[in-house]
Specification:
The protein is mainly alpha-helical. The protein is built from 3 helices and no strands.
Length: 98
């Protein structure tokens, strides 16, 4: 859409500078949020190995793509584990941002 080469590269460089500054400002927050979710998932997944009932992600993906899994026969324990991940992540955020 832009025919002028200088304008095109000026826009690209300007956007890169603005987004680079934004990334520098939110870096710590993003790291805290991502590690909070990953840690919460690992905790809940570890608990599920002993408690049972957490469905295997690969098996669910395969069953959905093959059409063998719908909402009626989807394991509802997944939602409890998903809530556990959310609660653990929120606790981690609260502790880190306090």
């Amino acid at each position: 859409m832009i025919d002028n080469t200088y304008a095109k590269y000026g826009i690209i460089i300007g956007c890169a500078v603005v987004l680079g500054y934004f990334a520098f400002q939110v870096e710590k927050i993003v790291v805290i949020i991502v590690t909070g979710f990953v840690g919460a998932y690992m905790i809940v997944r570890g608990i599920s190995l002993y408690a049972g009932g957490y469905p295997n992600e690969m098996a669910i993906s395969r069953e959905i793509s093959e059409g063998g899994l719908d909402f009626d026969n989807f394991p509802k324990t997944f939602y409890g584990y998903l809530a556990g991940i959310g609660v653990c992540a929120l606790v981690g955020f609260y502790v880190q941002f306090k």
